[in-house]
Every structure is written in C-alpha cells, then in structure tokens.
Amino acid sequence: MSGPRVTGLGGIFFKAKNPAVLKAWYEKNLGMRMVGSGTNFEWHQGIDSTKKGFTLWAPFKETTKYFQPSEKQFMINYRVEQLDALLIKLKASGILPTDSVERVSYGSFVHLMDPEGNKIELWEPNDVEYAKMGTITTK
User: Fold this and answer.
1) Residue limits of the VOC domain (predicted)?
2) Distance CA 12, CA 78 (A)
3) Which CATH superfamily is 5-131 part of?
C-alpha cells in the first residue's frame, strides 16, 4: 500500500511519578539502556532491511503538559509516510490537528485527538538524522 498512512509505532509515551527512577529500574532489571528521554528500540524496516527504524519508550513526569488536551496517562507516537498528504486526507474527514506541524532535523511531528479523547502524535521520521542523536541498539 502506498500513499499517506501509518507505518508503525514511533514511540510509547506515558506518565510516571518519577521518570528517572523508573528509567533506572528498567535499565537495571530489564536491560533497557537509557539515552536522553528513554530508550530506543532499533530495528530494520521489512521492505528494505538496509533502512533502520526506531521506536522510543519514554516516561514523562506526571505533571507534563505534553499530553494536553488529553487527560489520559499515555500517548502513542505513530510513524507515518507523507505527513502533509495524510493531514489533507484527515482534514477532508473533519479531523484537524491540535497544533501546527513541527519540523526538526529528525522528522516532522503533529498531534491530534482520537474519538475517545486520546492525544496521538504523528511522526514522519528522518531515521538517518535520528540515528545521529545517540540512539542505541537494544539487541
């Protein structure tokens, strides 16, 4: 299937009472090596195994405003292709983002709400640039 679509999970984000302690626990007990905001699971894309992909696991402080307007304790980041075209498609269905597209070296991000009030993040990644940020392999 080609065209604008979700291609996988870019990250699992959730609220924690003490993110630093939680990250240390996961690192010590489950071997999840932490860098920056959490840990990255590195994998290779199925269609082209020469291309790396990443899924970020990241606890946020309970007081974070990043998940607003959702009142949920988690937010899923979806990897997408053709973010701008996907936004046009969503707009045609009456689904509007909650913010503007943020473009950074490692990709473009935008947020929207699902029908149950969950904030989700759409990420069109630039995996080559993301890999330069100090990601690790969890193998």
Assistant:
1) 8-125
2) 9
3) 2,3-Dihydroxybiphenyl 1,2-Dioxygenase, domain 1 (3.10.180.10)
